[in-house]
Amino acid sequence: MDKELFEELRQSAEEMVAIRKGEMAPAHVTRIAMPVVKEIRSKAGVKQEEFAKLIGVSPSLVQAWEQQKRLPNGAALKLLRMIELNPNIINTLKMI
Predict the structure, then answer these.
(1) Structure confidence at residue 1 (pLDDT)
(2) Are the C-beta atoms of 77 and 35 separated by less than 8 Å?
(3) What is the dihedral of CA 41, 45, 46, 52, to 10 degrees?
(4) In the chain, how many domains are there?
(5) Model confidence, pTM
(6) DSSP string spanning the chain?
């Protein structure tokens, strides 16, 4: 491994440990509030199975989100937030 790359990795690991211990603040933190999936789906007026199909996940995953057994992340989290802000997006998803 290139010495320069190794040194960058070592420094990153040290920073991670310092942040974890509270000795250093992270440079940037992005937080998106966790949506209340059942409310979002209800406002959109669709059942779990249809909602799952529209957003491209399994019905069991939607159920787990609604029961807060699992938390949405990544693109699903952003899509849920978009639907929450504009429930009419469901109509667009139905056309796809």
Answers:
(1) 60
(2) yes
(3) -30
(4) 2
(5) 0.67
(6) --HHHHHHHHHHHHHHHHHHTTSS--S-----PPP-HHHHHHHHT--HHHHHHHHTS-HHHHHHHHTTSS---HHHHHHHHHHHH-TTHHHHHHH-
Angle formed by the axes of helices 37-44 and 74-85, nearest 10°: 50
Asked if residue 36 has pLDDT above 80, the reply is: yes
Q: In whole angstroms, how large is the CA radius of gyration of the chain?
A: 19
List of residues 6+ apart from 37 with CB closer than 8 A: 62, 65, 66, 72, 80
Domain match, 25 and 42 both: no
Give me the half-sphere count of Cα atoms (radius 13 Å) on the Cβ side of residue 86: 8
Please check whether residues 50 and 79 belong to one and the same domain. yes
